[in-house]
Design goal:
alpha+beta; four-stranded antiparallel sheet; about 15% strand; globular; binds flavin-adenine dinucleotide
Length: about 375
């Protein structure tokens, strides 16, 4: 297999790099989700991506996308991460809600929602997790009762990233009160400004408030906001989760690439000569190369089928654990100096944030089970 860019891909990579050079200011480069002026900068940056035609590269042209191959999306993610550009503020709309609506939505839903996801005019959040339904999503209890052609939603979601900024929420609800587990669930699009929706931000250990609790009290949702069929919400939700993990890999590799480079720069700057520490640095470089090849496998699957495969879980697991180890190593190299934040405290921030990376989008334990069962075809654990 030839892993080099084709001439068309190489030209696209050059175009993206030149565009990033011309458009990415230092202020944008440092923008961190949940911190300072992120919302303003994030919206501005997302608009720029959209105007350059880089939002929704692989989406169908009739809904504002570019209809480009997945390899172009991989190149865009890789280069923007390498350049330390902020993510598109519509990360949930672009990566999860949009692909789910493309796969299961009605024509009206596609026309109504997709273009505004791309232009970042409307931000989305994901209302899946509940206090008693995280890894075990089939335990959701948020109710959606159909009354006079409208769903009435009552319940609570938690850990919803972007909910404090969002216009829309993709919500997994239980529409059949007598149902259990995967049956009787309905996937709804909910207006976050509707009466009865209350958002309460939660602060993480980084000090930033990235995610939220959402309370729904008698929230009216029109029946046309159902995605897929009433009662078939589980299979729609699985599409969302496959996309959540499946298309992230290249961005994650780009982020790890930058972190490994910074780690090596730190080793040089500090004159580290402890062979055991140097071994660990070399190991992180090796892990990065392994992650790159896992991503190529995931990309091959995506190009063949159009649907992200379980390899996405391998990339997410590998990246999140590598990132956690690497930032810990950086703090060890900093030694006592790690107690004092210099500059923007990037290593300290990354170490604290990296704990969440091994929980969000599936915990490491859950991802290991998925890999065992669906990639390695081992017996099911339960
Ligand atoms: C930064 C961040 C952002 C998030 N954003 C969102 C969002 O936007 N929308 C959303 O809906 N959710 C979001 N989440 C929630 C996330 O999806 C859940 O936290 C995650 O699925 C785990 O669920 P839980 O927290 O309920 O933990 P639990 O499921 O209660 O798990 C607790 C522990 O038990 C382990 N465990 C559970 N079941 C098993 C099993 N079967 N086998 C082995 N071990 C098991 C877990 O690995 C974990 O260590 C976010 C989380 C974080 C950290």
């Amino acid at each position: 297999m030839d892993l080099r860019d084709t001439p068309g891909e190489a030209a696209f990579r050059d175009e993206v790099k030149a565009w990033l050079d011309a458009n990415l200011s230092d202020e944008l480069r440092g923008a961190r989700y949940g911190a300072g002026r992120f919302e303003e900068l994030g919206r501005m940056w997302s608009r720029k991506l959209y105007e350059a035609g880089y939002a929704g590269l692989t989406w169908p042209k009739e809904y504002g996308g570019a209809g480009a191959p997945y390899s172009y999306q991989a190149i865009l993610l890789e280069e923007t991460a390498r350049a330390e550009a902020p993510q598109h503020i519509g990360v949930i709309g672009l990566g999860m809600a949009g692909p789910t609506i493309i796969a299961h939505g009605t024509e009206e839903q596609k026309q109504r929602y997709l273009p505004k996801i791309l232009s970042a005019e409307e931000i989305w959040c994901q209302g899946f997790s509940e206090p008693d339904a995280g890894s075990d999503l089939a335990s959701v209890r948020t109710r959606a009762d159909l009354r006079d052609g409208q769903f009435v939603v009552n319940g609570q979601k938690v850990w919803s990233s972007f909910a404090h900024l969002a216009e829309w929420c993709i919500l997994v609800t239980r529409s059949d009160p007598a149902s259990e587990r995967h049956k009787g669930l309905t996937y709804l699009i909910v207006d976050m400004h509707a009466p009865g929706v209350e958002v309460r931000p939660l602060r993480q250990m980084t000090g930033e408030a990235e995610f939220n609790e959402i309370f729904f009290t008698d929230v009216q949702v029109p029946q046309e906001n159902v995605v897929g069929e009433i009662g078939q919400g589980w299979s729609v939700a699985m599409t969302t989760l496959l996309h959540e993990r499946g298309t992230l890999g290249f961005a994650l590799t780009g982020v790890l690439d930058v972190a490994v480079r910074k780690l090596i720069a730190l080793v040089r700057e500090r004159g580290v000569d402890d062979p055991l520490l140097l071994d660990r640095v070399a190991q992180e470089w090796i892990e990065l190369q392994a992650l790159k090849f896992t991503n190529y496998r995931a990309l091959t699957q995506l190009i063949k089928t159009g649907i992200p495969g379980p390899e996405g879980s391998v990339a997410k697991l590998h990246w999140s654990e590598a990132n956690q180890r690497l930032t810990k190593l950086a703090l060890e190299i900093l030694g006592e100096d790690a107690q004092v934040v210099n500059g923007n405290g990037e290593w300290q921030h990354q170490q604290l944030r990296s704990r969440g990376n091994t929980i969000e989008a599936g915990t490491s334990e859950i991802l290991r089970s998925i890999i065992a069962e669906r990639v390695l075809d081992l017996p099911r654990s339960r």
